[in-house]
Amino acid sequence: MVLVKKYHLPPTALMPNSPNPLLYYPGYFAEQKGLPKTLHQIFDDNGWETQWIYRYGPTQRSHYHATVHECMVVLSGTATIRFGVADLSENMVENTWGTAREAGGIEIKARAGDVFVLPAGTAHKTFDTKPARSFTLLTPGDGHLIPGGDVGAVLEETEQRLEGFTMMGAYPAERRDWNTQRGGEDFGAYQRVWSVPKPALDPVLGHSQEGLFGQWSDYGLSAKL
């Protein structure tokens, strides 16, 4: 049986979060050779599209995506991911390790093989990465699409450069126009964020009731942004 952890994150003054829960599958994929290419095939089979592999730096700004659901899989390293709250300062030390952030939220220690499925609007921030490296997009493109006809071959090449804390991101197929918000941009319009259509299948669990197929409601299924 798959271990699925669910976190219901309420909206805040700056972050919409979602009526549907953040889903976390700890250690679902063991760190292994060929994982990026394997993941890409699984995503594709479930109607999701691989769009990036990033190596993360020591910290980043808290943010959310208002127009798309997201799946992140940890490929290497460890880090802390904070979900559900906004940064309240531009000072990266204060908003990461200090008190310059909204109250609430959760923090998860992420490790290789972990899977996160984020409903649209979910605030997230990755920090305390180990081994420490600089923030780098490892795949070609702009982070919204991996260009070229043979994405699997690109991912095989990218795997050779997986050092530090790296994650692979996927989104429902053909959803490449997603945005990145830092908080407050959609205040008064959270309903629109919550109405992003539910994907037909979970990115890794497919039709399983343990994944979003069974854990998320059909809330806003027919709504359009």
Automatic annotation (TrEMBL):
CDD domains: cupin_YjlB-like
Tree of life domain: Eukaryota
InterPro entries: RmlC-like_jellyroll, RmlC_Cupin_sf, YjiB-like
Protein name (record): Cupin type-1 domain-containing protein
